[in-house]
């Protein structure tokens, strides 16, 4: 049985690593002087990873309130980086897509993300990085109540 009273319990470590990673990435984005805020880049990345998803699904996946995501999307849409359109299955809902212009933002952010990744995995072998990713993916699978496809169908 794991010792849940120490500062090294799995839950504590996961939370702490996620917080520290986000802080490090946000600081790097700010220092690089990109035209978008860290939150906007995060939102744009989620749109790109989940092209055609509804706003509500994206907000849930990001762990933000729908109104927070809506504000990010308003700013991204103003810059012509995302496009909102009615969901063909439910015209009351909006689906989100990146535009061609978003590719330049990703090109600008990629070296920053790579630098942060290399910094946090310093001293890890390629095999260790792959193993950490594999194990974290399994943890995420175990914590997902329903497959992503089912979640989108239910939101529809």
TrEMBL record:
One of its GO terms (biological process) is response to stress. GO terms for molecular function: DNA binding; DNA-binding transcription factor activity. Residues 7-141 form the HTH marR-type domain. SUPFAM superfamilies: Winged helix' DNA-binding domain. Keywords: DNA-binding, Transcription, Transcription regulation. InterPro entries: HTH_MarR-typ, MarR/SlyA-like, WH-like_DNA-bd_sf, WH_DNA-bd_sf. It comes from the Bacteria. Pfam families: MarR. PANTHER family: TRANSCRIPTIONAL REGULATOR SLYA, TRANSCRIPTIONAL REGULATOR, MARR FAMILY. This is MarR family transcriptional regulator.
